[in-house]
Design brief:
heterodimer; A: 337 residues; alpha+beta; nine-stranded mixed sheet; four-stranded antiparallel sheet; 11 helices; 13 strands; B: 277 residues; alpha/beta; Elongation Factor Tu (Ef-tu), domain 3; Rossmann fold; Dihydroorotate dehydrogenase B (pyrk subunit), domain 3; seven-stranded antiparallel sheet; 6 helices; globular; binds flavin-adenine dinucleotide; binds iron/sulfur cluster; binds FE2/S2 (inorganic) cluster
Chain lengths: 337, 277
């Protein structure tokens, strides 16, 4: 068995960065996020704290991403794609909730008729080094959402915190190769996998998608949405929210088209020419977010779009808590049809 | 084709040239587009494409006719992109990507009487199916077309409406405008009212409906009254769209994406969806 002694983390990351673009969790500007290694001065590795404030979805779905440039001359137009150069990429320290979210993004961007070329260019060469969670935080409820905190998936290597070292376990062929490339930086040592701690936050989602299918017009939605300001922070920080907008930037006749994160919490998201908006009111947008997470995605892709990371609970300025919302929804008694 | 489209990436348009522009109404123009190598991609009736005038923007439009050597888009002027499109001239290169959406069930409708009901720019998507029926005339039984617009000037595709389509075998074309005006001796009525007057038989008939939301709603009620069941009524939905390929999220109704699973649904399918349409 292999371990990565904690003193050698920088050495290991440097070695990986020789051939790959490496991303690590860092504390930055009062928050935390995944950032390229080597990090900038002031950044501090954030391996020991729980979830980063921004999720690692940035690694596969950046907040803004140029898609192509264009130049118009007279009546002619030329288009040039500006996609990422394909290069091996490694993301270090992804937790189970966040890798489950990447699995959901894979479903969206790589299946159902179309492969999204921009996503694929970032995702395919990506090696995920997952980090087993042994001590869930006060807002973590991944286990309730069917995620095993000790078993991030998809993943190429899993690391386990052993105190002075990380237990290192390759989980895929690519993970094996990466392990070999680290050679003598890893040490041989037997270790016992730690077990997961107790979850403070629990909720029962049994039968929830089926129940929600009959609750679209339930008056509870208006009450639940009441405090929401439609600020959209929950959607930006969520590891599995993926909605995007496509916009254009140009100077004169040259410019580029890019995509950027969008949020179903904003009225413009669905506003149509002429002013008609199918989700024109706050509670309709709020309802769409929760139903997408808990019902629609399940119906379409066979899995929940909430992985229980707890970020939205921490970040919501209005104290809206998805676990309490699920509990309220579960308490509703519906007439048996 | 000039630009270098990368057709591996569905979000990147390919370049086509506008080879003709027809003024349909004061605010609708039809754009004919093609490439030196023919149409940019094959399209079935009722399918969609993203059309972009590169510096201005990108928008989803029904392909109004898929000819052998070009595609037609009938585009109403309503905002930034469509304003800019209305100002271009023949010869302009624009971007298109597609084809998107499921399209009309042309095969399942074979052998049926076809009843097309449209209002305003809503004739644009139906026209692709109407012309397809005429192109494959023997596969479809009687054809009835009911079309209404606010005024004479607002009627799209006038030459086809008044000259070509009425000449087709076993075909009736009913045209109406909302308010009486000089120089119009045709019908004056709203589409749903006229529909009830015509009172088409539901026997072996498929009704295909597209128009402003209020017209669709009333026409659906009328059809139900006349005995059409939910499987016999087809409509096409509109939601705001950005990607066209079921990724960007915004065009969902429940777990369906209108750009991918739609835009064409029969009423039975629509009734399975949450009432957001
Ligand atoms: C399935 C489908 C088929 C359509 N077919 C036709 C057609 O055949 N002919 C036609 O004239 N119009 C059609 N439309 C509507 C057309 O897409 C909008 O009118 C157009 O995008 C407005 O763009 P704009 O920039 O001129 O307007 P603005 O109001 O300036 O639009 C601003 C932004 O909103 C978006 N937007 C506004 N309204 C809509 C809308 N209804 N749907 C999607 N995006 C919208 C635009 O893409 C743009 O990014 C169709 C829409 C859909 C969804
Ligand atoms: S909905 Fe909230 S708890 Fe669930 S995955 Fe998104 S941010 Fe995490
Ligand atoms: S973070 Fe809270 S207030 Fe903001 S949109 Fe999400 S639920 Fe509403
Ligand atoms: S337009 Fe993006 S999902 Fe339909």
């Amino acid at each position: 068995m292999k371990v990565l002694v904690k003193d050698k983390i920088n050495t290991a990351l440097n070695r990986l960065a020789e051939n790959s673009q490496v991303y690590v969790p860092v504390h930055r500007e009062g928050g935390s996020r995944f950032a390229p290694w080597p990090t900038v001065p002031g950044d501090e590795l954030a391996l020991d704290s729980l979830n980063t404030m921004f999720s690692p979805k940035e690694v596969v779905l950046p907040q803004t991403e140029k898609m192509y440039t264009f130049a118009a001359r007279g009546q002619s137009v030329e288009i040039k794609e500006t996609g990422e150069e394909r290069k091996e990429r490694v993301v270090f320290g992804v937790r189970a909730c966040d890798s489950k979210a990447i699995a959901a993004l894979d479903e969206v961007f790589l299946t159902r008729g179309y492969e999204d070329g921009f996503y694929k260019a970032r995702r395919e060469p990506l090696i995920i080094i997952g980090k087993a969670c042994t001590q869930p935080g006060p807002n973590c409820f991944c286990s309730a959402m069917g995620v095993d905190p000790l078993e991030p998936d998809p993943v190429d290597v899993i690391i386990y915190d052993l105190g002075d070292a990380y237990g290192w376990e390759p989980r895929s062929e690519r993970g094996q190769k990466l392990t070999q490339s680290l050679g003598d930086i890893l040490a041989d040592r037997d270790f016992q996998k730690p077990s997961a701690g107790e979850f403070q936050l629990q909720v029962d989602i049994n039968g929830l998608p089926e129940k929600l299918a009959g609750m679209f017009e339930h008056p509870l939605w208006e009450e639940l949405a009441e405090p929401c300001m439609n600020c959209g922070i929950c959607t930006y920080l969520c590891p599995s929210c993926y909605c995007f907008d496509i916009q254009v930037k140009n100077r004169g006749t040259e410019g580029y088209r890019f995509r950027c994160w969008d949020s179903c919490m904003y009225p413009e998201y669905t506003m149509m020419a002429g002013g008609h908006n199918p989700r024109g009111s706050k509670h309709e947008r709020f309802r769409n977010r929760f139903l997408h997470k808990l019902e629609f995605f399940q119906e379409r892709y066979g899995t929940s779009l909430c992985t229980g990371c707890g970020r939205c609970i921490v970040a919501c300025p209005q104290g809206i808590n998805i676990v309490s919302i699920i509990k309220r929804l579960q308490e509703v008694e519906l007439d048996v049809r | 084709m000039s630009g270098n489209c990368n057709c591996e990436n569905p979000l990147v348009p390919s370049i086509v040239k506008v080879v003709d522009i027809v003024d349909e109404t004061p605010d609708v123009k039809t754009f004919y587009v093609t490439t030196d190598n023919g149409i940019p991609f094959p399209v079935m009736p009722g399918q969609l494409a993203m059309v972009s005038l590169l510096p201005a923007g990108e928008g989803m439009f029904s392909v109004s006719w898929q000819a052998e050597d070009h595609l037609e888009f009938a585009i109403r002027r309503v905002g930034v992109l469509t304003d800019a499109l209305h100002d271009i001239n023949i010869g302009q290169e624009i971007g298109v990507r597609g084809p998107y959406g499921n399209g009309f069930p042309v095969a399942a409708c074979e052998g049926k009487n076809m009843l097309f009901i449209a209002g305003g720019i809503g004739l644009a998507p139906l026209r692709s199916f109407i012309k397809y029926c005429f192109q494959h005339r023997d596969k479809y039984s009687n054809i009835q077309i009911l079309y209404g617009a606010r005024s004479q000037a607002d009627l799209c595709f006038k030459r086809e409406l008044f000259e070509e389509w009425p000449e087709q075998k076993d075909t009736e074309v009913y045209t109406t405008i909302d308010r009486a005006e000089e120089g119009w001796d045709g019908k004056v009525a709203f589409v749903p009212t006229y529909l009830e007057e015509i009172n088409p038989s539901p026997d072996n008939t498929i009704a295909v409906v597209c128009g402003p939301p209020i017209m669709i709603k009333m026409v659906l009620q009328s059809l139900e009254k006349m005995g059409f069941n939910d499987e016999q009524v087809i409509t096409t939905l509109e939601m705001r769209m950005k990607c066209g390929i079921g990724k960007c999220g915004r065009c969902n109704i429940g777990s369906e994406y209108i750009c991918l699973d739609g835009p064409v649904f029969n009423l039975a399918q629509l009734r399975q969806l949450p009432p957001e349409w």
